[in-house]
């Protein structure tokens, strides 16, 4: 079950800088706590454009999730959104000074560590969940994604690549902040070695390297080691958590994905929002009767 019953923001500001994966340009991100529930709202500082993390603003979805508003693009928002949704920090102002968020190490772990160091703070009111009451499914050939009613937030993901080094991987997980941190947050983005030339020719992955991505060659990963044996499917789940942020609220449901990616993840959020008969708002998600995740983390017994 979800862990917190109240809306959460951060206890203090966080600033993180790095380079974009696709454009390879520098970017500084400032996470600013809010005083009242607002959702997750990006602010593109050069233009002052406010861009809420909403499915209606999703733009280009090739190899990253991009938000577009008034001609302003924000690329590769999914790993930060994943860290925030995974840790249930759902109300924040996210100031960025460029058009692509830093890739950092290719996972959500650096965001998660910074968020946990800052700590979270409860806001007034109750946390509001989007609770699935009827299945919603989106298909594209053999690839599909669907959400089913479920009393919690659970993901089931299958990937099947025609590359021996990757092959078929599947994982299923009911998410809590602790499980998100431990099971998903450190999984890095990945690609096939043979895709790199094509991506670069299209102006993508210009900032990619073995420091921020796992590259699979014919005989296995070119990186020295993997962080998980099934790091690829875990990263897909990390991406899915981030893309589901575009619902604008935490989800109560079971999401099953088969060979999906950003385009299908986002299409599912749009299909859900377009079918209000398939879900309802609820504040009635029982908070788990367990120790709080944030501040006690440093002092937790082993
Ligand atoms: Zn990703």
- What is the alpha-carbon Rg in Å? 18 Å
CATH level 3 topology: lpxc deacetylase, domain 1
Gap between N and C termini: 23 Å
What is the count of structural domains? 1
CATH class category: Alpha Beta
For the report, how would you describe the main beta sheet?
7 strands, mixed
Number of helices: 6
How much β-strand is present in the residues?
A: 25-35%
Bound ligands, named by name, code or SMILES: zinc ion
CATH architectural name: 2-Layer Sandwich
> What is the N-to-C succession of helices and strands?
EEEEEEEHEHEEEEEEHEHEEHEHE
**Count the strands?**
19
Shape: globular
Share of helix among residues? 10-25%
Structural class: alpha+beta
Uncertain residue ranges: 287-302
What's the name of the CATH homologous superfamily? lpxc deacetylase, domain 2
Could you please describe the fold and organization of this structure?
This protein has 302 residues and is an alpha+beta fold. The chain has one domain (8-285): 2-Layer Sandwich (lpxc deacetylase, domain 1), CATH 3.30.1700.10. Helices cover 20% and strands 30% of the residues. The protein is built from 6 helices and 19 strands. It has helices at 78-86, 109-118, 177-184, 196-201, 231-244, 262-274; strands spanning 8-10, 14-19, 26-33, 40-44, 49-52, 67-69, 72-74, 92-96, 120-122, 129-132, 136-140, 143-148, 153-160, 168-174, 190-192, 214-217, 220-221, 251-258, 279-282. Strands 10, 11, 12, 13, 14, 18 and 19 form a 7-stranded mixed beta sheet that branches. A 5-stranded mixed beta sheet has the order 2-3-8-4-5, covered by helices on one side. Strands 15-16-17 form a 3-stranded mixed beta sheet, with no helix packed on it. Helix 4 (196-201) links the parallel strand 15 and strand 16. Helix 1 (78-86) packs across helix 2 (109-118). The two termini are 23 Å apart. The model is unreliable at 287-302 (pLDDT under 50). The structure holds zinc ion. Residues 78-79, 189, 235, 239 line the site of zinc ion.
């Amino acid at each position: 079950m979800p862990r917190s019953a109240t809306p959460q923001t951060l206890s203090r500001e966080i600033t993180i800088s790095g380079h974009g994966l696709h454009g390879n340009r520098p970017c500084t991100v400032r996470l600013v706590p809010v005083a009242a529930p607002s959702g997750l709202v990006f602010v593109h500082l050069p233009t002052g454009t406010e861009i809420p993390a909403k499915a209606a603003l999703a733009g280009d979805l090739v190899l990253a999730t991009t938000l577009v508003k008034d001609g302003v693009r924000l690329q590769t928002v999914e790993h930060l959104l994943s860290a925030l949704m995974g840790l249930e920090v759902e109300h924040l102002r996210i100031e960025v000074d460029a058009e692509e968020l830093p890739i950092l190490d290719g996972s959500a772990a650096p965001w998660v560590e910074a968020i946990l160091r800052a700590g979270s703070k409860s806001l007034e009111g109750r946390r509001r969940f989007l609770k699935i009451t009827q299945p919603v499914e989106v298909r594209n050939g053999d690839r599909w994604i669907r959400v089913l009613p479920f009393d919690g937030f659970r993901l089931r993901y299958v990937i099947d690549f025609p590359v021996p080094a990757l092959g078929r991987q599947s994982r299923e997980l009911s998410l809590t902040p602790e499980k998100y941190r431990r099971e998903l947050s450190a999984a890095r983005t990945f690609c096939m070695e043979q895709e790199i030339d094509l991506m670069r020719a299209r102006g993508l992955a210009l900032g990619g390297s073995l420091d921020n991505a796992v590259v699979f060659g014919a005989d296995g990963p070119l990186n020295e080691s993997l962080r998980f044996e099934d790091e690829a499917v875990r990263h897909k789940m990390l991406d899915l958590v981030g893309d589901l942020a575009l619902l604008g609220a935490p989800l109560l449901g079971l999401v099953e994905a088969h060979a999906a990616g950003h385009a299908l993840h986002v299409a599912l959020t749009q299909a859900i929002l377009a079918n209000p008969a398939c879900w309802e708002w609820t504040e009635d998600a029982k908070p788990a009767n367990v120790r709080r995740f944030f501040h006690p983390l440093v002092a937790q017994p082993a």
